[in-house]
Design a protein that fits this description.
single chain, 7-stranded mixed β-sheet, mainly beta
Length: 124
């Protein structure tokens, strides 16, 4: 399984970015997906997840600003990030977990596969 994240960059507070994750080596529709982030000096946290059936879940700090989605035809996952804040500055990783469940939300420790990160820097 390979996960390739892209789309990070340097933006000003209030701007938007869309992260993309290209997946290969898996039957994509059988996997739950997630986006994690890790800021300097902080633990990695699960920001958003989406089940096989499309059910989404978000950490409180990004609710209403971030949207996770998936494209099962093209084996892609996305994280649309709006109204970015300096506190969103981190390396963002996409992750995957093979699961039979269509709609049970995955926990942070459930994920088996992680891609390399993409850096998001939000200036004030």
């Amino acid at each position: 399984v390979q996960l390739q994240a892209s789309g990070g960059g340097l933006v000003q507070a209030g701007a938007s970015l869309r992260l993309s994750c290209a997946a290969s080596g898996l039957t994509f529709e059988n996997y739950g997906l997630g986006w994690f982030r890790q800021a300097p000096g902080k633990q990695r946290e699960l920001v958003a997840s989406i089940t096989r059936g499309g059910r989404t879940s978000y950490v409180d700090s990004v609710k209403g600003r971030f949207i996770i989605s998936r494209d099962n035809i093209n084996n892609m996952a996305y994280l649309q990030m709006n109204s970015l804040e300096p506190e969103d500055t981190a390396v963002y990783y996409c992750a995957a977990r093979r699961t039979r469940s269509l709609n049970i939300v995955l926990e942070p420790n459930d994920f088996d596969y992680f891609g390399q990160g993409t850096l998001v820097t939000v200036s004030s």
